[in-house]
Design goal:
30% strand, rod-shaped, 9 strands, alpha+beta, 193 residues, 4-stranded antiparallel sheet, single chain
Length: 193
């Protein structure tokens, strides 16, 4: 009977020591949500845009300029600027708790989104027998959208602000993951390849 108690106590002690040793073992951080977090780190910018239609009117009929047309319309649009989330990666923390996040430069994500409720009337001047066709309006709109996108891409302040915003959000994400594990992480950024 005493031998059974001794064996029972030894088994309990052995199981407890295994259980406690697994509690002491340091958990590894899981940064698998970084891509979803990076997708949320976007800026939405509103632009006012002007679409222009122009033909210098080299078409002549009986000495009358019939091809001249000049028209424009205005509208507001939105552009989303952020980082390509598929290129974000986070290294495991080193012995000092330093975590390196690889992040790409900011870019315009998708096409500009025009607000149809803001389209103005078409203001135009045209030659005799010359019409402003729907095709003209579509070409002008496409050109204005491309120009809006390029204008945003060529604005270093916007691109810096979008990347900085993404860095802040990703840094907070890493710090919160660390805090959930009882760790204090420091973050550094590197350009993604």
């Amino acid at each position: 009977m005493k031998l059974n108690k001794v064996i029972c106590v030894l088994l309990i002690a052995l199981v407890t020591s295994f259980s406690l040793s697994s509690c002491v073992e340091e958990k590894k951080p899981n940064f698998s949500g970084c891509k979803k977090v990076a997708e949320l780190a976007t800026l939405e910018c509103t632009f006012h845009n002007v679409a222009e239609i122009f033909n210098d009117g080299t078409d002549m009929l009986f000495g009358i300029n019939v091809g001249y047309k000049k028209a424009w319309f205005e509208y507001d649009g939105k552009i989303t600027i952020g980082i390509d989330a598929s290129k974000v990666s986070i290294e495991a923390p080193d012995a000092n708790g330093l975590v390196i996040i690889h992040i790409p430069n900011a870019q315009v994500l998708g096409l500009p989104d025009a607000d149809e409720t803001t389209f103005s009337d078409i203001y135009s001047e045209k030659g005799l027998l010359t019409k402003i066709e729907m095709v003209d309006q579509e070409k002008a709109y496409e050109a204005a959208q491309a120009e809006m996108k390029q204008s945003a891409e060529n604005n270093p302040d916007l691109m810096w602000q979008a990347r900085s915003h993404a860095e802040t959000i990703l840094e907070q994400y890493v710090i919160k993951v660390g805090e959930s594990l009882g760790q204090s992480y420091k973050v550094e950024f590197a350009d993604a390849v």
